[in-house]
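Handout, page 2. Input:
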Amino acid sequence: MISSKKITRRGFLKTVGVMGGATALGDLSSSRVSWGQQKEPIKIGFIQPLTGPYGTEARDQEAGATLAVEEFNARGGVLDRKIELMVRDDKLQPEESARRAKELLEKDKIHMMAGSIGANTQLAMNEQCKIAQTIFMSTSASNEITMAKDVSPYTFSEATNLHIITQAVGRWTAQNIGKKWFILAANYGFGWQTTEGFRRIGKIMGCTEVGLINHPTGATDYTTYFPKIMAAEPEVLLLCNFGNDQLNSVKQVHEFGLKKKMKVICPLIVITSRMAAGDEPYEGMIGGATFYWGLEKTIPTAKTFVTNYRKRWGRPPTDMSGYAYSGVRGLLSAVERSGGMDTKKVILALEGYEYDFYKGKQWMRAWDHRSIQDMFVLQSKTAKEKTEQWDVFKVMDTVKASDGMERPAQELGLQEGVPLSRQL
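Output:
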């Protein structure tokens, strides 16, 4: 394909959506494994908003989880047991997520649960898993999941959270771009949490907030906000939204020339929105990411992950693919290392575990079950800079993983250094 060709979001969905039929999956006959006495498979429930505004990102997570399961099955499964990924759609509705989770736990008798992009849907899944005393690996970048109110010995989060993302991006922005900030944020959890995070790091870095506007989710017209933003004359516009909201606001910011007057920063910038918008709207935009496939040039495990993912799906992975791939691998690795499906032993195998599945060293902190990991600052490439369709970002900086990037244990309602497994 021509690298400068624009692609619509609908077209992008058709191009990269994970298909379920034999044609989409290819001929897997060469990877068939003899399962001996046909031991009961290890069942992992995997719930995602496959339909709705995060459908593209959800399909990326499904693809990453599927790859992880297929890799284990290709080498004989785990402890001579096949892995079965049981995928369900919650339509980004917490009630549906809870219903699906309960069904998987009680009817399908899953052994572990993973998934979810939505902050509220992952909490619904987590509650059902706590009741059933079943391990849940969240793949949603949420502040709440590892706070005392929601976390449990059975709760783990492979994804980073919005607080950590804003601390990394905010510090880099203050040091490299400017300290006079205007915030345009979606009026729900993502917008509120990124606003709070930027305010916190902004105070530490001596930044000035010159304005805040909260817009409704699903807004289509952002131009009414622009006169107030331009009148404040910020050095930086922090665009605290995601999915279609980010896509639409970025397009209008570009069309009305705001990028000529200020630098536009997204706390979380993802390849799906970038490609759906085309080259021009995102040109020069900077944002945070937990992964980019271009890291294959410098990180050995990233190269392996990207190569295998491309071979399987015909395209490079996204950050959402990485979350699900690493989260499912983490669960299966813990089962393998613990020698069985005893829940307490698997929890102990996860707590404090250091690993590098796809992007460099991470560790699953024992006292809050949060994966601590590197963050990356990306800048969108111009059409001339791209070497292929998917080559849309360049890595500006790596913000190394640090325990200090998360909120202190007291603020989370937890005891630093006290493993959650002690509650069992």
